Write a sequence for this structure.
């Protein structure tokens, strides 16, 4: 079965209203959670969170589907209805039309709970007349029962051991119509849904509906009072039990003494009054010497009504309804019926379900108070967080029930700090953007410079007569000049027309394996190969290979020794080498040969000059 209360996360705005308003803090949100959760083991079913939730994200368990199925099942169904109908259905002209509408749903019997109110009221009268020094808390409101069982278990023995009028009415219906009768209860309190689950088959209630759920069924079944005749409740009929929705209605039903000078019953109503009166009853019952009639007040303002406001008007409607019922009331018949049911067993037992939490470490509470900006002796709070004091709030933070953000002043300070941090962040972001823009401009300029340098390098490479190639460690060409392409031959020149500079071409498919081995050697070992002559058929290539980036990029200079410009340069180079070597030799033996060294030098220089002169005339 669904929990009594659930949260629609699609509608929830995380405003913390439900957490603040819950009288027992059964709704919690942990640090880091986006949405609150309802701890049903702590919930007392008051429904205050539902009425306070403006986005309508809080909902109670809807049982219209179960009611619809039961009404269409063909089984005998009895509807028992709270006297609060007078406050809810002011739009229905006469209660007899309302009864006819209920019968149109498919109910065989329709009874009002007011008779069971009268019975339980007289049970209270008998109980209070023979207290023998013991004082009771009246137990007809399931919210009060839940609150005492969970948060004041020491008072279990002071709960009047009597069932509520709803349960009493169900017992009477089973006695009247048999144990197989199906029962649907209709009333304004959602806590009745859970109360119905506490009792066995003897008081079995199959479905509990609130008034909004009942209106939904009327709409689905297209039921309208204008199409129906009058129909009254089935007997037994109630007397003053019709006043049950009022805070002192059950006392009125038994004609108990309410004179403040002589009465031994104190009546209180409402959330705060409930909390304070039960606490005071526990602390001072020996001095108060009074029974406590306490109700949460949901009979006229709970989430089970379509409209939670206008309480004074609703009280007027309840009294008006009761007076109208009594105009043609047969009290003698009612009294005989009452006597016939007073002997039934309407007693019950309550059980402790202690949900009180242990006190947290005082040091932790003190630390949290400091985070909230409060001192340890701050006992008065602003109540914006839903707590009476900052210490109570800090205590539940330490218990993990709530977060500090529920404190408005703490949230405000955090917001101010966040805004200040955001301002600093925006300033840093502006500076970063400026720096980024400058960096982008520098990068653009550098990129343009690289392009210009690359173009200049390529132009310079093209001026060289030697072939130049740069490759990576996968033997892919990164850059080459036209002289290199020319050395490779016609096939490479055709590729060069499509891919200038043979960029990306595989050197392994273009060069002789002997030269490739030299590139591999340089890339792997990082050594340099200078002026290595390699013969390919009739062609002699002079190869120099050097490291540009160790193990990653290498460059090669390849010269075709047949090229005239290469021949001239190479002859001069090599004659210069011969001269250098001979000069070294001459210097060693010069003192032996006298002027011979000078003659040899002149002769060699003349050879070079002759070669240059002859080459120029030839060209």
């Amino acid at each position: 079965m669904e929990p009594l209360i659930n949260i629609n996360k699609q509608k929830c705005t995380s405003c913390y209203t439900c957490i603040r308003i819950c009288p027992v803090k059964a709704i919690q949100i942990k640090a880091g959670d986006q949405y609150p959760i309802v701890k049903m083991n702590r919930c007392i079913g008051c429904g205050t969170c539902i009425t306070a939730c403006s986005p309508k994200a809080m909902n109670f368990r809807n049982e219209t589907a179960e009611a619809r199925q039961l009404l269409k099942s063909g089984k005998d169904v009895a509807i028992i209805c709270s006297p609060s109908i007078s406050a809810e259905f002011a739009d229905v002209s006469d209660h007899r039309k309302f009864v006819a509408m209920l019968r149109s749903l498919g109910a065989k019997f329709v009874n009002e709970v007011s008779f069971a109110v009268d019975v339980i009221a007289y049970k209270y009268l008998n109980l209070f007349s023979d207290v023998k020094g013991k004082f009771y808390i009246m137990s007809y409101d399931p919210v009060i029962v839940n609150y005492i069982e969970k948060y004041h278990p020491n008072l279990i023995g002071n709960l009047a051991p009597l069932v509520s009028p709803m349960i009493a009415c169900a017992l009477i219906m089973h006695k009247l119509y048999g144990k197989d009768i199906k029962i649907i209860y209709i009333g304004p309190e959602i806590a009745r849904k859970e109360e119905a689950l506490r009792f066995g088959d003897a008081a079995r209630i199959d479905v509990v509906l609130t008034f909004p759920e009942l209106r939904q069924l009327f709409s689905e079944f297209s039921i309208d009072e204008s199409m129906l005749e009058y129909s009254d409740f089935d007997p037994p009929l109630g007397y003053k039990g019709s006043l049950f929705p009022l805070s002192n209605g059950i006392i009125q039903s038994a004609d108990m003494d309410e004179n403040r000078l002589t009465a031994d019953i104190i009546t209180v109503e409402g959330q705060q009054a409930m909390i304070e009166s039960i606490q005071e009853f526990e602390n001072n019952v020996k001095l108060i010497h009074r029974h406590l009639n306490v109700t949460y007040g949901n009979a006229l303002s709970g989430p089970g009504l379509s409209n939670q406001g206008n309480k004074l008007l609703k009280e007027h409607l309840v009294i008006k309804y009761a007076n109208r019922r009594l105009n043609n009331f047969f009290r003698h018949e009612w009294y005989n019926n009452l006597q016939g049911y007073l002997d039934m067993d309407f007693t019950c037992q309550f059980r402790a379900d202690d949900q009180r939490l242990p006190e947290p470490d005082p040091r932790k509470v003190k630390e949290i108070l400091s985070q909230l900006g409060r001192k340890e002796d701050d006992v008065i709070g602003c109540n914006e967080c839903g707590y009476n004091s900052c210490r109570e709030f800090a205590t539940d933070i330490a218990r993990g029930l709530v977060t500090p953000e529920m404190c408005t002043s703490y949230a405000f300070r955090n917001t101010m700090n966040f805004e200040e941090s955001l301002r600093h962040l925006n300033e840093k972001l502006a500076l970063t953007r400026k720096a980024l823009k400058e960096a982008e401009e520098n990068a653009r300029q550098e990129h343009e410079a690289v392009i210009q340098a690359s173009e200049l390098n390529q132009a310079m490479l093209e001026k060289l007569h030697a072939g130049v190639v740069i490759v990576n460690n996968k033997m892919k060409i990164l850059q080459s000049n036209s002289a290199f392409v020319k050395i490779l031959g016609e096939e490479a020149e055709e590729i060069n027309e499509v891919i200038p500079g043979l960029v990306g071409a595989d050197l392994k498919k273009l060069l002789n394996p002997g030269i490739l081995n030299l590139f591999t050697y340089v890339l792997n070992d990082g050594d340099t190969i200078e002026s290595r002559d390699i013969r390919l058929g009739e062609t002699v290539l002079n190869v120099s290979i050097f490291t540009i980036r160790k193990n990653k990029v290498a460059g090669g200079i390849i010269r075709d020794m047949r090229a005239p410009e290469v021949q001239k340069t190479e002859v001069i180079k090599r004659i210069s080498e011969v001269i250098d070597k001979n000069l070294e030799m001459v210097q060693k033996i010069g003192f032996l040969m006298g002027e011979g060294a000078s003659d040899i030098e002149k002769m060699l220089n003349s050879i070079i000059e002759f070669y240059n002169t002859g080459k120029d005339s030839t060209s």
The chain has a mean pLDDT of 83. DSSP finds 23 helices and 15 strands in the chain. Residues 85 and 516 are 102 Å apart (CA to CA). The first strand starts at residue 5 and ends at 7.
